[in-house]
Amino acid sequence: MSNRRDSTTWRPGVALPRPEGARAPRPDILDNPDSARVARVAGLARRHTRDKYDRFLVEGPRGVGEAVRHAAAHIHDLYLTPEAADRHADILARARAADLYTHTVTPRVMSAMSADAQGILAVVATTALAAGPQEGGAGANAEAAERPGARSAGADLAERLAGARLVAVLAEAQDPGNAGTIIRTADAAGADAVVLVRGSVDATNPKVVRSTAGSLFHLPVLTGVGLEEVLEALDDAGLAVLAADGSGPVGLFDADELLTRPCAWLFGNEARGLAPEALERAEAVVSVPVLGAAQSLNVAAAAAVCLYASVRAQR
After folding, report:
1. Count of CB atoms within 10 A of residue 312's CB?
2. Which letter, b or e, does each residue of 197-236 get, where b requires 16 or more Cβ atoms within 10 Å of its Cβ?
3. What pLDDT score was predicted for residue 295?
4. Is there a contact between 286 and 255 (Cβ–Cβ < 8 Å)?
5. Which carries the bigger pLDDT value, residue 156 or residue 246?
6. How many CA atoms lie within 13 A of 163 on its CB side?
């Protein structure tokens, strides 16, 4: 069943209409796994489809619940199996209160849409990434949701860095699990934003989205900006740039004076680390001490240690 009219005709850059007054009658449960609608949703697992339609998938109750709570104005459709509708009645009630398109589907249809949905998924506009959490209810970001692509990535970057005290920057990070975990960690540490420099994994990659466990909707996640532009924006915002690198001459345990200042941490590629130009532009290159026999830390683990070191120093 659905509580708004058909919203599956996706037109890039055009927001879906929100009806006024009484809702349309609810059609029967969606039960055809071979339908064009199902194929469109399933296609969002591929990056070129996400880029074409400015949409991405959010799978599972935790991610969908946080999207409904914090980014409702950017949600185009919500799909649930009957069992998930009963199990997650709170999510469904919140979605209907926000007048979102909700559709009940058979388990076969859900499986055709996604193998990782656990009975519930949402189609979300990519404008949700840079928007950050909504203030003031479901309609607070409606204007932004209606204008996908209207703002440049650089404009979003400058706006989101203004007044920031802690930012995580991923430079050519390729592993989606690591990227999603760093976004989640940055959220937990109270960071003001996460920036994925151009060349990093796509922030709307389904594994990235799942790995954030909903944190994707708790803080701005900015993408599509080159390293030089990011470094200039960080400098303009008065943020000290600290590069996390295993060979850094400054030990994290000796960096308290640096960490008390508003700062942005640069985290590099899982195999190659940070590029020479990033290391050269950093105010300090900081290493996390490895006290045991391990050769190095996973980048997501290193990011957690560095971000929380900043939190501790800034308190």
Report:
1. 12
2. beebbbbbbbbbbbbbbbbbbbbbbbbbbebebbbebbee
3. 86
4. yes
5. 246
6. 2
Strand-by-strand arrangement of the 193-197 sheet: 221-225, 193-197, 166-170, 263-267, 240-244, 284-287, 250-251
Here the tokens at position 238 are 């008065």
What contacts 294, CB < 8 A, 6 or more positions away?
none
Structural domains in the chain, CATH included, are 36-145 (3.30.1330.30), 153-314 (3.40.1280.10)
Q: Which of 112, 128, 121 is nearest to 222 (CA)?
A: 128
Tokens of 262: 């508003």
Name the DSSP letter for residue 19: -
Element (H, E) at 123: strand 120-125
Provide the residue type at 144 as one letter: A
Q: How many CB atoms lie within 10 A of CB 25?
A: 9
Backbone Cα Rg of the chain: 21
Which pTM does this prediction carry?
A: 0.87
Query: Is residue 169 a contact partner of residue 265, using CB atoms and an 8 Å limit?
Result: yes
- 8-state DSSP, 5: S
Strands 120-125 and 75-80: antiparallel
Rounded to 10 degrees, the C-alpha dihedral 61/66/67/69 comes to 120
Q: Nearest CA to 226 among 175, 147, 144, 169?
A: 169
Q: What is the pLDDT of residues 75-131, one digit of tens each?
A: 999 999 999 999 999 999 999 999 999 999 999 999 999 999 999 999 999 999 988
